[in-house]
Design a protein that fits this description.
Order of helices and strands of chain B: EHEEHEEHEHEEHEEEEEHEEHEEHEEEH
Strand content of chain A: 15-25%
Low-confidence stretches of chain A: 94-128
CATH class of the largest domain in chain A: Alpha Beta
Strand order of the largest sheet of chain B: 6-7-5-15-16-17-14-18
Number of strands of chain B: 20
CATH topology of the largest domain in chain B: FAD/NAD(P)-binding domain
Largest sheet of chain A: 7 strands, mixed
CATH architecture of the largest domain in chain A: 3-Layer(bba) Sandwich
Distance between the termini of chain B: 32 Å
CATH architecture of the largest domain in chain B: 3-Layer(bba) Sandwich
Strand content of chain B: 25-35%
CATH superfamily of the largest domain in chain B: FAD/NAD(P)-binding domain
Chains: A alpha/beta (494), B alpha+beta (389), C alpha+beta (142)
Number of domains of chain B: 2
CATH superfamily of the largest domain in chain A: FAD/NAD(P)-binding domain
Largest sheet of chain B: 8 strands, mixed
Number of helices of chain B: 9
Mean pLDDT of chain B: 92
Shape of chain A: globular
Oligomer: heterotrimer
Low-confidence stretches of chain B: 380-389
Mean pLDDT of chain A: 89
Radius of gyration of chain B: 21 Å
Number of strands of chain A: 22
Chain lengths: 494, 389, 142
């Protein structure tokens, strides 16, 4: 008999763990699924126990708090780490044909399930109870297929860096800011000896500070958007003065220059990075003056891309965030447009770990309430989410990506790393009649390769003259044909 | 005023525009989306003669296969005359397959079981044999459509079709029954003739002219693997069941393996057929069946990963034949749509025949099996305008 | 003890080795294949299909697929999210095509300079396949 959980949570970052903990504290039978071998997501990525770190929190804020939540959760919920989710489906009830919305609503939204047990196959009638099937691959190299079923789903899959292309961005030694951060937080590997940090957004500060403290010679932080320099960084205006001051102090102590309205516009080297071209930018990010900075490593990022393939698979409605990025549309209880499916954290709008945790808590409480558990309202939590959301919006407005980055590209600059599609091919596709990102992809292949447009999608959309669309990826992670051919199926219901 | 307005910038519309321009006509192509944004953009690029029963569609396919070879000379898109291998599961199927091949009258080689791996070294053992069709080919359909439009008929010393994307046809200009142009969201365009090459949406366009074309979507999924370092599948390879499924009228799900490599590395895996309207919801069971059938053909594929899946909507007519020619119910309106899963392959012949019709020439093939009014109950030609189906 | 280890007060379990295109690379238990390679000063190990361009870590979190390797004959694994295990045999496409990683690991003079300034003086002039690409001074603090 396949176990059916009350709630499956995808993502063991701040949102997922907080949501799972709230739901399990309210008595739900919860399973938490994450691709990584350890919880934390990107923000709370931390060292494996084999490092025996005495001060693991030295690398980032808030790790101790997160780990306390994790320990509390571990004893209450089923944990599936090292499980990559490649598809989610609505099944059971009337949902077999993929039109489960109504059935899910009947089951998950009903108030008469109040005394459903918190154990397997509770008292909710099997014939009316539509479920979500989460299809995973277990093990980083084994990739064993596994299906997990639940009556409700919380999507907390977070975000990844949003790179912009520029000449040389595919040279070894050029990393995303998050990649450099992940090496340090997760493996205690300093990304390089002489490092330049470039991009836009508040995330550049902790990345640069972390690298400097860990012994890298950080040659400069180039913030494309900031006009005012570090002393008037928007973090200061947003009640994050202590955090910002901390980063500023680290950068000052290590004599790291911080330049607003500057960016790395080209990377150079034969087989790997040897130096970068840094440009002073005008208000639209067009280069005004350039100079060269020697370095072996560049960490760059221009914000984040929420990972939306799973909610899109389920048909969840999306909306545009303040910066045009598609995100999952949710109500105050983090309910998506699909009954029984909830979303929290960066998938509903990039706003950082604190907001993600608060949203996760709201979601976990909403799931419990919707499944008939008594959950007292917590107005302070909702107010906190509102406040942090307003702050996130202010940051988005403070750090827009300006269109002048297109001037950084040359004809032979690769836009798509996987399929090695240069800008000239994108332009040729436009001349052939490709008027949107999808047809540019069909004609010139950007986004057709391994990463399925995760790296180039934003840039290709901009070059096609539109905001990026919510990604349609029916297969969210590569899956072996042999595994796809022999899927384990939920037993038919009724 | 253009001589012709072509509605639809897919591969069929592009071929119609291309051949009309070559015939000296002044052509405007309209599409509500971008070039190749509909079913063309969801196709595998099949140019098949192997899967057609003897009859009008096969005649069209043979004509088209030759035209594709010639069009490939334009450059600008991949054209691979790789040949197709149809394999039979057992002796009975093999006998049917060889009988079909004999009746088709197209170039083919019957391949006995022991020689199948000469064609496809990684093919699973146990097949009873097969038939190899050297004329089966593959084109990159999106680039082919874009190239036919872009290059127009310049090589023939004529003009190039004018492509206008993002223009939606909202109705037709009429002079009595006669169609004299199109109404669009960007204004009216009078024209000597109008070609409906709207593919799966051809029925909707026809309805704007008050004529009935029973074109319905027949959904198909395709799996795309990771790029392979070395080719694992050399030809188009499919099981005999594919031929049966193509010809089937079932609304339910049918799948049969069609597997092929591509020059850029990934292997493409089709083909499913189901009539579910324009529903894009991914069906994992369909993907699973496609994977299973592909692995049954090529066991080595089991270890390779699928990185992408997508679906498209074939324009399906009840008798599986396209609609090609002038509509007697709305003179001046020509149809070139409803090619189901064979639109890529049949596009050049369709465009060629439409251009002949537009210029008053004698068509190279008998068009009567493709008549637009063949679905009307009385086949009177000017019957009551039917509702869009 | 180098800065990052001091920073967090880490006293890791003893390192083990994996073999990368025949060369031993040290791994702190729990590190990914990609992190171990990067720490060893190897910045690129994949060669692209069309341009033969060198690639290594880019996103570092399993999203970009630039860092693909073959581990124990399992192809196309993301080095950045594949945890190294003792005795793993890693094969790179750069080795197959004789490009970046092979050059980097072989420590040829020109490549030695451009291997991201990893500062691997010990690597210079070694035979291909004979150099661990290990002990990098200064970059990874091990």
């Amino acid at each position: 008999m396949t176990r059916v959980y009350d709630l499956a949570v995808i993502g063991a970052g701040p949102a997922g763990v907080a949501g799972a903990l709230e739901a399990s504290l309210a008595g739900l039978d919860v399973v938490v699924i994450d691709a990584a071998p350890r919880p934390g997501g990107q923000y709370h990525r931390h060292l494996p126990g084999s490092f025996h770190a005495l001060r693991p929190g030295a690398l980032h804020h808030g790790l101790e708090r997160f780990m306390r939540q994790w320990e509390a959760l571990r004893s209450r919920a089923e944990i599936l780490l090292g499980h990559r989710v490649w598809a989610v489906e609505r099944t059971g009830g009337d949902a077999a044909g993929g039109t489960a919305g109504a059935a899910m609503g009947a089951a998950a939204g009903a108030g008469d399930t109040a005394d459903a047990g918190d154990t397997v196959d509770g008292t909710v009638g099997a014939t009316t109870d539509a479920t979500v099937t989460v299809r995973c691959l277990a093990g980083d190299r084994e990739e064993r297929p596994r299906a997990v079923r639940a009556r409700a789903l919380l999507i907390a899959t977070g975000a990844h860096d949003r790179p912009l292309p520029f000449p040389g961005w595919d040279l070894p030694g050029v990393l995303t800011a998050g990649g450099a951060q992940a090496l340090l937080k997760g493996s205690l590997v300093v990304a390089g000896r002489r490092v330049v940090v470039s991009g836009t957004g508040p995330f550049l500060l902790p990345v640069a500070a972390g690298l400097a403290r860990a012994g890298a010679d950080v040659r400069g932080v180039y913030e494309a958007g900031g006009r005012f320099g570090l002393a008037r960084h928007p973090l200061l205006a947003a009640g994050k003065a202590a955090e910002a001051a901390g980063y500023a102090a680290v950068l000052a102590r290590h004599r790291v220059p911080y330049r607003g309205r500057h960016a790395v516009v080209a990377a150079h080297g034969e087989d790997a990075l040897t130096h970068v071209t840094v440009a002073r930018l005008d208000a639209d990010w067009r280069p005004v003056a350039t100079r060269t900075v020697a370095c072996d490593t560049l960490a760059c990022g221009y914000g984040f891309v929420p990972q939306l393939e799973l909610p899109v698979q389920l048909g969840c409605a999306t909306r545009r965030d303040a910066d045009g990025t598609p995100v999952v549309a949710v109500d105050a209880g983090r309910r998506t447009s699909v009954p029984g499916v909830y979303a929290a954290g960066e998938t509903t709008g990039v706003g950082g770990a604190e907001l993600a945790e608060a949203e996760g808590r709201l979601a976990g409480r909403a799931v419990a309430a919707d499944r008939g558990r008594r959950v007292p309202p917590l107005p302070a939590l909702a107010r906190r989410v509102d406040r942090l959301t307003a702050f996130a919006r202010a940051l988005h407005e403070a750090y827009p990506v300006r269109p002048g980055w297109r001037d950084w590209l040359r004809d032979d600059t690769l836009v798509c790393r996987c399929e090695e599609v240069p800008l000239s091919a994108v332009r040729e596709a436009r001349r052939l009649g490709a008027t949107d990102a999808r047809s540019v992809k069909l004609l010139a292949r950007p986004g057709m390769g391994w990463c399925q447009g995760r790296m180039c999608g934003y840039a290709v959309a901009c070059l096609a003259g539109e905001d990026p669309a919510a990604p349609r990826r029916p297969i969210a992670q590569p899956v072996r044909l042999g595994d796809l051919a022999g899927l384990e199926h939920p037993p038919s219901e009724g | 005023m253009p001589d012709v307005v072509v509605i639809g910038a897919g591969v069929v519309g592009a071929a119609c525009a291309h051949y009309a321009a070559r015939a000296g006509l002044d052509v405007v192509v309209l599409d509500r989306g971008p070039v190749a944004g509909g079913t063309t953009g969801a196709g595998e690029g099949n140019v098949l003669v192997s899967d057609k029963e003897p009859g009008p569609e096969l005649d069209l396919a043979v004509l088209s296969a030759g035209l594709w070879r010639e069009l490939a000379g334009l450059g600008g898109f991949e054209y691979e005359p790789k040949g197709g291998l149809v394999v039979a599961e057992d002796d009975e199927v093999l006998a049917a397959l060889t009988a079909l091949a004999a009746g088709q009258g197209v170039e083919h080689t019957v391949v006995e079981a022991g020689r199948l791996t000469d064609y496809e070294p990684h093919l699973a053992p146990g097949f009873a044999g097969g038939v190899f069709y050297p004329q089966d080919a593959q084109v990159q359909p999106m680039l082919a459509a874009a190239t036919l439009l872009r290059k127009g008929a310049r090589g023939a010393g004529r003009g190039t079709p004018s492509l206008r994307t993002g223009v939606t046809v909202t109705g037709f200009l009429r002079d009595g029954e006669r169609v004299t142009g199109v109404r669009t969201d960007r204004g009216d365009i009078p024209a000597g003739a109008v070609v409906n090459a709207a593919g799966t949406w051809g029925g909707e366009v026809a309805a704007l002219a008050g004529v009935h074309l029973p074109i319905l979507p027949r959904r198909g999924f395709i799996l795309v693997t990771e790029p392979l370092d070395e080719p694992l599948v050399l030809h188009k390879v499919y099981t005999a069941a594919y031929v049966t499924n193509v010809a089937s009228d079932s609304a339910g799900l049918e799948t049969s393996a069609v597997v092929e490599g591509t020059p850029s590395g990934p292997v493409l895996i089709g083909a499913s057929r189901e009539r579910v309207g324009f529903d894009r919801t991914v069906s994992i069971p369909v993907l699973e069946r496609l994977a299973r059938q592909a692995v049954e053909l090529f066991p080595a594929l089991a270890a390779r990963r699928v990185i992408r899946a997508y679906c498209g909507f074939r324009p399906y007519c009840p008798d599986h034949l396209p609609v090609i020619g002038e509509d007697p119910r709305a003179p001046g309106l020509y149809h070139a749509c409803g090619h189901e899963g064979a639109g890529i392959g049949l596009a050049p012949a369709t465009g060629h025949l439409i251009a002949q019709a537009l210029t008053g020439g004698r068509p190279g093939l008998d068009l009567s099996p493709f008549r637009p009014d063949r679905f009307d109950p009385d086949r009177s030609g000017t019957g009551t305008p039917a509702k869009e189906g | 003890m180098r800065p990052p280890y001091e920073l967090v007060g880490a006293r890791p379990d003893p390192a083990f080795e994996i073999s990368v295109d025949g060369r031993p690379v040290p791994v702190v238990p729990g590190q990914s294949v990609g992190a171990a390679l990067h720490a060893a000063g190897v910045r690129s190990w994949r060669s692209t299909r069309f341009g033969g361009r060198p690639r290594g870590l880019f996103c570092g979190i399993g999203v970009c697929f630039d860092c693909l390797v073959t581990v124990n004959d399992v192809p196309a694994l993301r080095a950045c999210v594949t945890e190294a295990r003792p005795g793993d045999r890693v094969r790179t496409s750069a080795a197959d095509s004789g490009t970046a990683a092979a050059r980097a690991g072989a420590g040829k003079d020109t490549a030695g300079k451009s291997v991201a300034g990893a500062g691997r003086p010990g690597a210079a002039g070694k035979e291909p396949g004979g150099e661990s690409g290990g002990d990098d001074e200064g970059v990874n603090g091990r």
